[in-house]
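During the no-cost extension, the postdoctoral fellow (Dr. R.K.) reprocessed legacy sequence entries with the updated structure-token encoder. One reprocessed record is reproduced below for audit purposes.
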Amino acid sequence: MNIYLIRHGEASGEGTEEKSLTNNGRKNLENLIRYTDNLNIHLDYLIFSPLLRARQTAEYFKKYLNNTNNFFSDETLAPGGSTEILLQFAISLDSENIAFVGHQPDMSRHLSQMLSQDFVNTSFLPGTIAKVFFDYKIAKGEGVLDFLIPAK
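Re-encoded structure tokens follow.
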């Protein structure tokens, strides 16, 4: 199983829920998607946080990758979510390629816990995408980092 962790693009605005992507955030996402185009990313699922900036980011990936019919929001990706619950959710989807769009510090924590039983310090800037591969066991500390690409 491949899990793609995507932090929403650069955002600004009022309140936690109302922040939307900035023009710079949109431009950086377009550049990131063009850069990753040669990686032939195919997504069976593209799931995002219920917050506006995550949905907008997911819409960019859906538009440019144009290869997923399973596109929806889920509370599992709301700020403060658990990595164990996220992995259980991924297992329940019974699919090969799943992308999750969320927030900081969650994306760094999810990545760290997927890769190691100890803490792994990662920089998850706005618009960053990471691919974690799970061979046999889908559990904390069992993933292998395939790539980590920031939008800039």
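The helical segments are 23-36, 52-65, 83-93, 106-115. The CA atoms of residues 42 and 65 lie 8 Å apart. The remaining legacy entries will be reprocessed before the final report is submitted.
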